[in-house]
Design a protein that fits this description.
- It is a single chain.
- The protein has 431 residues and is an alpha/beta fold.
- It has two domains: 202 residues, 3-Deoxy-D-manno-octulosonic-acid transferase, N-terminal domain (Rossmann fold, 3-Layer(aba) Sandwich), CATH 3.40.50.11720; 189 residues, Glycogen Phosphorylase B (Rossmann fold).
- The strands form two sheets. A seven-stranded parallel beta sheet has the order 3-2-1-4-5-6-7, sandwiched between helices. A seven-stranded parallel beta sheet has the order 10-11-9-8-12-13-14, sandwiched between helices.
- Helix 3 crosses helix 18 and helix 11 packs across helix 16.
- The longest helix has 27 residues.
- It is globular and about 70 Å long.
- The mean pLDDT is 90.
């Protein structure tokens, strides 16, 4: 009955949110690309490739989830030489990252809307033997269709914060039937088990395996690309670099102002910013230039210039984890002027000291563990951020201690990808 009303009101909800979604797609660009796939429509060539394989369907929303999906699919191919996967993603940036390394054992598609006729068309074309959802994407029609077709459904790297649990508890009668469709839930921390049990999931389906995102065993960093880019811009690799990763509106200007004030004490200083949404690059550049900074875009590498830029703005996708290798200090974005935080793991694995603001709700367990173990610095405001950056620039030993402590915290998740892949492989269609 609940699903009946969900499908009844879905078109109304789609019409209500459609203007905002269209605006976002247009703003991020390339919105017409394979638009039909979002409605479960696939060209003949795609249908022919899918018909030739029995596949695992992995669904990931955007760049962060796609990175997890790629790590997991790589491990699944090691366990099963015949492994073939369909990776669906919601955003154009996620689609670009998923296609950054061509793979004949993977078909990348846009995820279909969760409306029952669209989802049924998608299932009929993809015809998966199992479905793997990454982090939090459990949609009612997708889950119900998998259950009706006896296709095993797993949620990996499951994310359920205290805030999300409280919200779900208020609507437990509505969401519990969807969660009960899950055959396996791979959670990141042992304490997460009870949260899922409280939402009606059978305990024997919940597996505390650690976080794929935090698994240091599966991360491969390549500093060659950023080092070459720095060389083309004339930036001294040995000079200190303040790096802002996945920043949100307002944070770039804060970093720019801090950078200018610190240059009196650290004249050979460079600021590199990687905004969370690259389509904001032009706007950010204008704002930083109004602060008096000489700013270049990463896409301008190789163009002639009189002097190295003071600030390099990354306007490309799929490279961020490699750029952390050239940083001296990393600020994790969406934590100072916005809520939620971004992933602090990649800079830690690159061996860099990490700072973040007071808002790390999306990574609360990890952020708390890092702060408690003196493995990262959490700041209250721009003034304290400046003070802590200056401290780490002056005290190299303190920075190294932060890195060592942080890597010890991450070591608890070592092997999470392999443990998750082993559970996924065991999922077989019901006879």
């Amino acid at each position: 009955m609940i699903r009946f009303f969900y499908n009844l009101f879905y078109p109304l909800g789609l019409l209500f949110f459609l203007p905002g979604q269209i605006s976002k797609l247009v703003r991020r660009g390339n919105y017409r690309h394979k638009l039909g796939q979002r409605f479960g429509c696939y060209d003949a060539e795609t249908r022919a490739r899918l018909a030739a394989h029995r596949c695992t369907w992995i669904h990931a929303v955007s760049v962060g989830e796609v990175a997890i999906a790629l790590k997991l699919s790589s491990k699944l191919r090691q366990l099963d030489p015949d492994f073939f996967c369909v990776l669906t993603t919601t955003t154009t940036t996620g689609f670009q990252v998923a296609n950054s390394e061509p793979n004949e054992r993977m078909e990348v598609l846009y995820s279909p809307l969760d409306f029952w006729p669209i989802m049924r068309r998608a299932f009929a074309t993809i015809d998966p033997v199992r479905i793997v959802l990454v982090e939090a994407e459990v949609w009612p029609n997708l889950a119900a269709e998998a259950r009706n077709r006896r296709i095993p459904l797993a949620l990996v790297n499951a994310r359920l914060s205290k805030r999300s649990e409280a919200r779900f508890q208020r609507f437990r009668s509505l969401i519990a039937p969807t969660f009960r469709c899950l055959d396996a839930i791979c959670v990141q921390e042992p304490e997460d088990v009870e949260r899922w049990v409280a939402l009606g999931v059978s305990r024997d389906r919940i597996h505390p395996v650690g976080s794929i995102k935090y698994d240091p065993a599966e991360v491969r960093l390549n500093p060659d690309l950023p080092l070459e880019i720095l060389r083309t811009f004339g930036i001294d690799r040995d000079s200190p670099i303040l790096f802002g990763g996945s920043t949100h509106a307002g944070e770039e200007e804060i970093l720019g102002e801090i950078f200018q004030r610190l240059r009196a004490d650290f004249p050979a200083f460079t600021l590199i910013i990687a905004p969370r949404h690259v389509e904001r690059a032009g706007e950010i550049r204008n704002r930083l230039q109004r602060l008096g900074l000489n700013v270049c875009l990463r896409s301008e590498a190789g163009e002639p210039r009189a002097s190295p830029p003071e600030c390099l703005l990354l306007d490309t996708t799929g490279e961020l984890q490699h750029w952390y290798a050239v940083a001296t200090i990393v600020f994790v974005g969406k934590s100072l002027t916005a809520r939620g935080g971004q992933n602090p793991v990649e800079p830690i694995l690159a061996g860099k000291p990490v700072l973040f603001g007071p808002h790390m709700e999306n990574f609360s367990a990890l952020a708390q563990a890092l702060v408690a173990n003196k493995a990262a610095v959490q700041v209250r405001d721009p003034n304290s951020l400046q003070q802590q950056i200056a401290w780490l620039l002056r005290d190299r030993q303190a920075a190294l201690r932060l890195v060592a402590n942080a890597q010890s915290v991450l070591a608890r998740h070592n092997g999470a990808t392999a443990r998750t892949a082993a559970l996924v492989v065991e999922l077989k269609p019901a006879s």
